[in-house]
Amino acid sequence: MDQQRKHVSDTPSPAGELEAAPERDGMTCKDSMRYGSQQLDGHSPTAALDARVLLSHVLRKDEAWLIAHDSEIIEVDHSIRYAELLARRRRGEPVAHITGSREFWSLQLAVSPSVLIPRPETELLVELALRRIPADADWRIADLGTGSGAVALAIAIERPRCQVIATDRSHGALQLAKRNARELGIGNVAFVAGSWCLPLAALGFELIVSNPPYVADDDPHLREGDLVYEPPLALRAGPSGLDALAVIAAQAREILTAPGWLLVEHGFGQQSTVAKLLTEAGGRDILCHRDHAGLPRVTECRLCAADPKEA
Ligand SMILES: C[S@@+](CC[C@H](N)C(=O)[O-])C[C@H]1O[C@@H](n2cnc3c(N)ncnc32)[C@H](O)[C@@H]1O
What is the span of the domain harbouring residue 84? Predict the structure, then answer.
């Protein structure tokens, strides 16, 4: 064996059923990443990245380590485990379900089939909310449809004096969000079961954020990629995809107090209808923001119970 190459020693993973096993003897990290990328080519639009994430998960090393140690030899049991995970990915299972986690706003979050896998574009919602919340504010903030808790936890950690209260109708999601808060040691967040603003009716909030479901029921994307594995409750919102956004726009003013910010994520192409819904609900200063891909993604407005609704 090449003396420059060392074995990666780590806790052995439990052996499982072997599928599509590669030639394993003497595979280096670099060979394994190349092999994994080839295996996933045509099965994933992000084959090389997926292979890196899965190898890093098996070895329990971060991706920077893999690149810095690309000539290390992988132990056979790790290679077997890696081949199993590649086979699951080839069958379409999302990487985040295979590894059980996804990074969002630099927080490592547990994810499961009960929740939407947090998307990078949703970081725009967090970024815009933080622009509105002064660093020393002690506001009460609502996150409607919290899923894994991604948005609520990101805001709570950035604004430790605020109290974030998050709702969801899915008990599986709430359990996972609570686990994420506990494991990350974030204490200024609470999770309540119920539909949108209804469980919050007795409270006042300076700001509401929401990334609700906004995919139309017959959208063909629901039959593709990760969406096939995610809960319909997190994705589908009626014939136009606007059912949830319409309810949130109508309910939000009842629980907002000054300055009364509402920020919602939506699909591109929905921005003018969302603006109309917010105007009808009494929203002012309506502004739509684009994501990094240049697509209209988040609309914000000011809305208070005292404001008149459009006639
Ligand atoms: C698109 S996911 C967003 C999850 C998370 N906020 C994120 O950005 O990753 C929408 C969430 O809304 C929840 N949801 C659907 N209908 C709801 C309702 N009527 N009331 C509260 N939450 C609801 C779903 O369970 C799901 O967790």
Answer: 29-92
